[in-house]
Specification:
Blueprint (H helix, E strand, L loop, with lengths): L1 H8 L8 H6 L27 H8 L1 H9 L2 H4 L65 H5 L45 H4 L12 H5 L44 H4 L12 H5 L39 H4 L2 H4 L14 H4 L29 H4 L7 H4 L2 H4 L13 H5 L63 H4 L29 H4 L13 H4 L11 H5 L30
Length: about 575
């Protein structure tokens, strides 16, 4: 207790005190020998935890790693582990307080984990004697400077090409440069392009490496247009990207067939420039050979006449070109109307005009087909459909207008002598002039009703001049007139067409003499005598025999007499 009290009250001293000498466990290591008499450099009185802080005050590099949590010391767990747990002193001058078991040391606890080829390397290969472990280099060139053949031309990033498994196994992703290695380039040695370890500003044009392989004498500057990086001698050129795509037989031709003397620019692309000697037309059809010939075979001619103003159809397809093109097509423009070629075949002698295609077609000239419904205002139906053109078209259709009225063709068959007008279709139809003749008598002046609807036409129409048929009833029913014309000729006033015997007459409404009194009971014949058309309404005309006054009182009998009885008087005197 006394010693402790003395230590607590004793002032700091540079020399080791008697007490410190008495409590010192032993001599320090050789590197710490200078602190033998300066215990306060590593120890704080009565503060054991301050020891690690004092260590770091001297070992600043380790302190920096500790603070940044890097390196071996920065990764130690737990983070507050005291330095003395690994490094002890006071065991003599020859003690190595940094000693550790290299065989059991886990290098993953450092900033440089050992992988692949580095795993089996001896520690001394990287950690030089008398040098702190932390000073061992971590960059490739630090260890492999003697193995580096590029003379620093590629910089210090060896890992871009080399790997940890085998230094001599080189892998470089050339696709990340401006010149990706594909095809045969991928198999080429680096020195083939990078001579003398030259890696910057290396030419990337094909000709820079393949000048000796270039047979075109510099005419074609884009080698990749024809050659590829798989095989320089394998030529592939996409001619379709030029103004002259190769198709058909052209695709099989040798380049020199058109590009003589290695000429590749300003080469003529017209057919005649190469095939002038093959032109059997001697330029008569112009220089547009492609209009007839194809790239498949020069001897096979195919001309799309449909793209002209005269498409070839029917027999025209099989006709030879020279049958129409007797003169050079490039100079002479042929007419496209039928008549220009078929004038001799026109049996109508021009009568139907030049529009032959209205009746004839390209399949055969001798078969005429004309759609009269679409081509004219007169559709051919019934018997008209089987009639010959010449039956109606006596003269040229192109110069003469044909009337469409029935009477214009059938006047000789009109038994009515034009009496019924020109509307023959009111009774006749085109199935036959005498077939199913129908006339709607209701449209005539004399509609047929009652008994009239059942009688034969010739009962009234004694001739084909139908308008001559009489209209008054008496003309047909004179024998039925029991009145002998006493009641006039207007039989319809009493009789009807349903039955002649069934008659009805309203004397009160239909005449000016209403029947009243005894008049209503008298027989018609009492007043209406034979052949007497006009009947008087004056009393005396019928009752003269009954006038006892012998006319002395005038003819106005109604002043005194009534219709009930002539003897009955209206007034008495």
């Amino acid at each position: 207790m006394m010693i402790a009290a003395m230590a607590a009250t004793a002032p700091p001293a540079r020399a080791q005190t008697i007490i410190q000498q008495l409590v010192s466990p032993g001599a320090l290591t050789a590197k710490h020998a200078k602190f033998e008499s300066k215990c306060e450099s590593c120890h704080a009185s009565f503060d054991k935890n301050a020891q690690s802080r004092l260590c770091l005050d001297c070992h600043k590099e380790i302190a920096s790693d500790y603070t940044a949590r890097r390196g071996f010391h920065g990764r130690i767990q737990p983070a507050d582990r005291p330095c003395s747990s690994c490094h002890t002193d006071h065991e003599g001058r020859g003690k190595d307080i940094v000693a550790f078991d290299s065989k059991s040391f886990d290098h993953r606890q450092t900033d440089y984990p050992l992988r692949a080829g580095h795993v089996g390397v001896a520690c001394a290969s990287c950690h030089l004697p008398n040098h702190p472990f932390r000073e061992a280099p971590s960059d490739c060139v630090g260890c492999h400077r003697t193995d580096e053949p590029h003379k620093r031309a590629l910089g210090d990033r060896c890992q871009d090409c080399h790997n940890e498994s085998n230094w001599k196994e080189i892998r470089f992703d050339h696709s990340k440069t401006d010149f990706a290695l594909t095809g045969a380039h991928g198999r080429a040695e680096c020195s083939a392009c990078h001579a003398d370890e030259h890696y910057k500003d290396v030419a990337t044009t094909c000709v820079s490496c393949h000048r000796k392989d270039e047979p075109h004498k510099g005419q074609l500057v884009r080698c990749e247009s024809c050659h590829n990086d798989s095989d320089w001698k394998q030529i592939r050129f996409d001619h379709s990207k030029t103004k002259f795509a190769l198709a058909g037989a052209h695709a099989k031709s040798e380049c020199t067939a058109c590009h003589a003397n290695e000429r590749y620019t300003n080469v003529a692309t017209t057919c005649v420039s190469c095939h002038g000697k093959d032109d059997v037309h001697k330029a008569r059809l112009g220089e547009n050979c492609a209009a007839c010939h194809t790239v498949q075979d020069w001897n096979v001619g195919k001309f799309d006449h449909d793209k002209t103003k005269f498409p070839l159809m029917g027999k025209h397809v099989d006709a030879r070109c020279e049958s129409c093109h007797v003169q050079p097509a490039a100079k002479v423009r042929l007419p496209v109307d039928c008549e220009s070629c078929h004038r001799k075949d026109d049996a109508h002698k021009g009568g139907f005009g030049p529009d032959c295609e209205q009746c004839h077609d390209a399949s055969t000239w001798k078969v005429a087909k004309f759609d009269h419904t679409k081509g004219t205002r007169f559709a051919l139906t019934g018997k008209h459909a089987s009639a010959k053109c010449a039956d109606c078209h006596l003269v040229g259709a192109a110069t003469a207008k044909i009337e469409t009225a029935c009477i214009s063709c059938h006047v000789k068959e009109d038994v009515h002598a034009k009496e019924l007008g020109a509307n023959c279709e009111q009774c006749h139809n085109d199935r036959g002039w005498k077939v199913a003749v129908v006339f709607d008598h209701d449209l005539a002046r004399f509609p047929l009703i009652g008994k009239h609807a059942d009688i034969a036409c010739d009962a009234c129409h004694t001739s084909k001049r139908y308008r001559e048929a009489p209209l008054p009833c008496l003309d047909c029913h004179r024998k039925d007139d029991v009145h002998k014309a006493a009641l006039g000729v207007k039989c319809g006033d009493c009789h009807n067409p349903i039955s002649w015997a069934d008659w009805s007459f309203d004397h009160d409404r239909q005449t000016k003499f209403a029947l009243a009194g005894a008049h209503a009971r008298v027989d018609c014949a009492d007043c209406h005598r034979p052949n007497q058309q006009k009947i008087s309404s004056v009393c005396v005309d019928c009752h003269r025999a009954d006038d006892v006054h012998a006319g002395r009182f005038g003819t106005d009998c109604g002043r005194c007499h009534t219709a009930s009885s002539f003897k009955a008087l209206r007034n008495r005197f």
